[in-house]
Amino acid sequence: MRIHIDALQCEGHGMCAATAPDLYDLNDDGFATPTDFEVPPGSESSAESGAMACPMGAIKVQH
């Protein structure tokens, strides 16, 4: 499973990091980074939760 974050859609609400801080990091400006990463085994549920928490729909889960 991979995560892709559309940097143009991300508005820096930080809901992904608030929901799944073990997976989603924010840069100094509050935007999610990195924008593409592999989800570690066992963290799939957190990845999905963080993606669903994004009010902009900027996070895509790729299975």
TrEMBL record:
Gene3D superfamilies documented for this protein: 3.30.70.20
Alphabetical list of SUPFAM superfamilies matching this protein: 4Fe-4S ferredoxins
Keywords of this entry: 3Fe-4S, Electron transport, Iron, Iron-sulfur, Metal-binding, Transport
Keyword Iron: yes
Cofactor names: [3Fe-4S] cluster
Superkingdom of this protein's organism: Bacteria
Name of the protein in its database record: Ferredoxin
Species of provenance: Rhodococcus chondri
